[in-house]
């Protein structure tokens, strides 16, 4: 996850709109050339399909029907058998340690470092914590599932352990701070604008003091229980053991772009559906930009690729965008320090986690589909001490079809899903225990909250001529407990026709 610096400002772009409409599937690139972005996908499995057809036609009609089941056709079935996959535990309980090593070198003197460490939220399948749907007959609807629950918080500073309330309550302001035996300070204040308060969300503040050639380590250890959840209703692609499937969304049950404003009182669309988000004045562009010419032409081509009559299907457009990014944008492990914007990611055809999310959200916002960020830490599928890294992914709001809601007596304003999408890790409307959530983005036109999240070290003070270095790492501490078995998530495009 790379830093995206921000201040509010004006929009600038180097891309130009095509002078005339392009044919179906063709976009105008930033160089002015036209390229058919849908052609590659059609040819990708041609050789495999031809080989599979030879075997398939040898089967009886009954065997063919049973074999295909819920797949969209022979090609999709073959892809499902050959596609790479990740395997995830259904439930996991583990301790994640977020470690900071601070060292001071150079001139003789002393230094001080203050860091804000977010207290993790209780994360539910319905973000409000209530049932996803409310019914006209007074029924409460399906219960919200707890996806992430903190069991214990411990801060270890220079070897001294301090127990932290799992919700950070009651507040411990700076005046009531804990001072360790080595003189370091710990407190968990309310959220506010004062330097000694939490700038984003409830947090633990750590202040360590160093002398020249001295090092200090502090480790924030979170014992967490995490559960898988799917907001996707797809018989052959979502394992039955994963919670949420029966209330999930699909192409057939999705509403249109016009329905979005009629869901959740339009709050998400107002907060996270606008064209532009998070202006970075050091690079003079927005991280998310749905008004950029390349973004708009790409979105138009994706919409045109949907089945006839479905170009405004919110689910279909979002899923086709997800599959498009898999097909044409590679993962960049050497991404620049300041993240590429959505348009820059599309132009470069490469990007890391937040850059591809910028691209996904940029395309979503051309149609007013709300998308907002989730920040946290990503582990390996079975949560070993290796492989943890900072990560960014997102949420989108998708409306259920009005007739689907009416048939079930569901209040229209509550008839939608708010679901996680992780483009680079092929997690479509899926939450897994391997993704630890620090913070779900809140609406903030100034960009201040996101900036503060990316800058957890709130102050560094040291003697002139000295240098202070902070190295951040993550690891699993102790045993990991699994429950509910495991499941595979395969990577191949969804047949939307």
Features:
497 residues, alpha+beta, 5-stranded antiparallel β-sheet, 25 strands, 33% strand
Description:
By secondary structure, this protein is an alpha+beta fold. It has three domains: 26-41 and 228-448, no CATH class; 45-82, no CATH class; 89-224 and 458-481, no CATH class. 20% of the residues lie in helices and 33% in strands. The protein is built from eleven helices and 25 strands. Strands 3, 5, 6, 7, 11, 24 and 25 form a seven-stranded antiparallel sheet that branches. A five-stranded antiparallel sheet has the order 8-9-10-4-23, with no helix packed on it. A hairpin with a 5-residue loop joins strand 8 (178-179) and strand 9 (185-187). Helix 6 (293-304) crosses helix 9 and helix 8 crosses helix 9. The two termini are 35 Å apart. The model is unreliable at 5-35 and 37-42 (pLDDT under 50).
Domain count: 3
Helical proportion? Answer: 10-25%
Low-confidence stretches: 5-35, 37-42
How much of the sequence lies in strands comes to 25-35%
The computed structural class is alpha+beta
Largest sheet composition: 7 strands, antiparallel
Which outline best applies?
A: globular
List the total number of helices: 11
Q: How far apart lie the N and C ends?
A: 35 Å
Number of beta strands: 25
Mean pLDDT: 87
Calculate Rg over CA atoms: 24 Å
SSE topology:
Layout: E1 26-28, E2 34-36, H1 39-44, H2 46-56, H3 61-68, H4 74-82, E3 85-106, E4 110-118, E5 123-124, E6 146-157, E7 160-164, E8 178-179, E9 185-187, E10 203-211, E11 214-227, E12 229-230, H5 267-272, E13 276-280, E14 285-289, H6 293-304, H7 314-328, E15 330-331, H8 342-348, E16 350-351, H9 353-365, E17 371-378, E18 389-399, H10 402-407, E19 416-422, E20 427-428, E21 430-431, E22 435-440, H11 448-454, E23 457-462, E24 466-476, E25 481-490
Parallel strand pairs: 15-16
Antiparallel strand pairs: 1-2, 3-11, 3-24, 3-25, 4-10, 4-23, 5-6, 6-7, 6-11, 8-9, 9-10, 12-21, 13-14, 17-18, 17-22, 18-19, 19-20
